[in-house]
Specification:
Layout: E1 25-26, E2 50-52, E3 61-62, E4 69-71, E5 83-88, E6 93-98, E7 107-112, E8 118-121, H1 122-133, E9 142-145, E10 154-164, H2 180-184, E11 187-189, E12 191-201
Parallel strand pairs: 1-3
Antiparallel strand pairs: 2-3, 2-9, 4-7, 5-6, 7-12, 8-11, 9-10, 10-12
Length: 202
């Protein structure tokens, strides 16, 4: 019985290299597998927070590290208490109240560096400064994602950004104190404070 055979020779060449890029500005790798007892359900303290500009002028900015201290926010905005005032009438005094709103309070995020401890990379601070000095226009807002505390996203307006070598918070807009030697090594020394208001949930 005849046996039919066949063979073919293939030439295998190396594939052309493919260049890949990412639009997110990432200064440190998050570790979302870290879940602590106090973490809210569905999120992890290893997740880094993120800012997203409404246009393509700036890439989304993932925090190099989450802030050491933050005010007026836990897993949701901590609204101010209702305002109550007494109004006099011809017959009696009336109590008039207004409900507190998220936009009535400012949220602060603070990184606690010092004169001898670098807490933030210079590149990350400069990206924060770009977001601060270029507020969106035409009714657009920056999106803030506190992914270590909640899966919700919020529209925000940045009020102030400061860098203080003394570690004090609450500086005015435009106050930046740089340590020459530290910045030469790619870091900033001192306390960095970012203050903003939440407009609404996305």
């Amino acid at each position: 019985m005849a046996i039919i055979t066949n063979s073919t020779t293939f030439t295998v060449s190396d594939a052309s290299p493919v260049d890949t890029t990412t639009q997110d500005v990432v200064f440190a790798s998050p570790n979302p597998s870290i879940i602590l007892p106090g973490d809210p359900i569905g999120v992890s303290s290893g997740s880094l927070r993120r800012l997203t500009y409404p246009t393509t002028a700036f890439a989304p900015l993932i925090y190099s590290s989450n802030p050491d201290v933050y005010t007026n926010f836990n897993v949701s905005p901590l609204d101010v208490r209702p305002t109550v005032q007494t109004t006099g009438s011809l017959e009696d005094n009336l109590l008039v109240g207004w409900l507190g709103r998220s936009r009535d309070v400012s949220i602060e995020e603070r990184w606690l560096g010092s004169t001898n401890k670098s807490r933030m990379k210079l590149d990350f601070f400069l990206e924060l400064h770009n977001y601060y000095r270029n507020p969106p226009v035409n009714g657009q807002y920056i999106i803030w994602e506190p992914r270590d505390r909640t899966v919700k996203q919020y529209y925000i307006i940045i009020e102030a950004l400061s860098l203080s070598l003394t570690g004090s918070a609450g500086q005015g807009a435009g106050d930046f104190e740089f340590d020459y030697l530290v910045t030469r090594h790619g870091y900033v020394a001192g306390s960095v404070t970012l203050r903003f208001k939440i407009i609404s949930e996305v």
